[in-house]
Amino acid sequence: MVIFLIKLVVFDLDNVIIDGEAIDEIGKIAGVEKEVMEITEKAMQGDVDFESSIRERVKLLKGTAVEDIKKVADELPLMEGAEETVKTLKEKGYLVAVISGSFDLVAEPVKEKLGIDYLFCNRLHEEDGILTGEVSGPLVEKSKYDVLCGILEKEGISPRECVAVGDGANDISMIEAARLGIAFNAKPALRKKADAVVEDKDLRKILPIIEKVAEADDKLNKMSYDEVMELKNEYEDKLSAIASERDELNKKAREMKELRDSLNSELRETLNRAVELRDKRNEINSKVEENKKLRDQINKEIRKLEWSSGGRDRIKIENEIKRIDKIIETRVLDINKENELVKTANELRKKLMKIQEDDETREKALELRKKSEEYHEKVVALSEEAQGYHEKMLEYFRKTDEIRKKADEAHEKFLEFRRMASEKHEEFKSTLGEIRQINERINALRSENRSARRRESREKDIEEKERAREIYEKFKEGKKLTKDEILLLQKHRIV
């Protein structure tokens, strides 16, 4: 008995058969691209129901010329590998259908080009070549599952003989119903429901997946009951091992996530401390600048006093006297030269005696110098304090770099473990699907066995009845019956 051979492959159109979202492209020429794309994204994610979203988007297209839409349709590229994929499927004898919420103006040319057997899509209403903002069709009010059931009924096949390929939330109903549901570059809402996931934008990637299912069907159909039971045990052991590996990877991912979050928390605290130290340093540096400014202002006042009181001239004369005295003491001079220097020094001393610095000015200068020194001491002390905070700040910033590096490493490990766990989960789902097929084969074999036993029982009953009639005829002729022969006559109510 041959079971579950794939007979029908159903596709969504947008972002599956064609590389783009038709209504978004039409929205561009209608000048409502942003609004349309926002609604499309919500619909694909499953945040709004498809009927409401399609009606709302089509209303935005009101007034668009049909000819412009046809030009957009002509420019929409097929998904990479689409032609080869459809051709290969049809060569293998599969029916190919497209069930899409997209529009006839876009979908009909694709149907003709690829030779698709069934196309179900919506229709944009127009008057005099201009869109009215209305839409109708099987995918406005019905789900894709409802439409799929119509194809299955017409062809006389079951969902278990069907493959569905989609990318958005509105594909979930047919993905769940089909024997094999493939999420093609899909949104998370659909990926969770699919039996297989294709990440690459190459439709040919679905062919090995379908082929694997077909081969599994063929293999199962050739197995005996005992062989299938043995295969089931193997797959259940495999499923258990995959689940353990997946759970261990999820555990490691959680550990890395907790470590990353802990490090990020420590990072924030350390960074906050570094910022506090920086702010404190800047606050002290502001005080340094204030005291420098005050010190410099006082020094400026001191210089003014020196100029106004003759203090500057006195300093010059004193320095000149010191210079002459040093020459006389350290050099060997002729008498005329030495007398000349002595005379000059005496004259300078007389001049110095005449320079009188008043007491009030001197007292004020001394007071200002004292204040200048006080401010300078504050500048030095505050600078040292600011430097201390600066060094601590640098230390904390170095710590933040170290912590950030560890947090980044933990995050990378988290992503890697999560990716590996996701791959294991996909393997788990695939293996679980294979076990379901094995169980269905087991049920079919059991049904066959029950039918065979019933058939054997009926044949045996017919034979016994015939024998019982022969025994009864002999009994009527006077033959003596054995106990078993009497029981046989009673069983079939001959006597």
From TrEMBL:
The keyword Isomerase does not apply. It comes from Methanothermobacter thermautotrophicus (strain ATCC 29096 / DSM 1053 / JCM 10044 / NBRC 100330 / Delta H) (Methanobacterium thermoautotrophicum). Residues 225-304, 338-385 form a coiled coil. This is phosphoserine phosphatase. NCBIfam families: HAD-SF-IB, serB. One of its GO terms (biological process) is L-serine biosynthetic process. InterPro entries: DUF7121, HAD-like_SerB, HAD-like_sf, HAD_sf, PSP. The keyword Transcription regulation does not apply. Keywords: Amino-acid biosynthesis, Coiled coil, Hydrolase, Magnesium, Metal-binding, Serine biosynthesis. It is an enzyme of class 3 (hydrolase). Its EC number is 3.1.3.3. Pathway: Amino-acid biosynthesis; L-serine biosynthesis; L-serine from 3-phospho-D-glycerate: step 3/3. Its cofactor is Mg(2+). One of its GO terms (molecular function) is L-phosphoserine phosphatase activity. Belongs to the HAD-like hydrolase superfamily. SerB family. Pfam families: DUF7121 (PF23435), Hydrolase (PF00702). One of its GO terms (cellular component) is cytoplasm. The active site is at D12, D14.
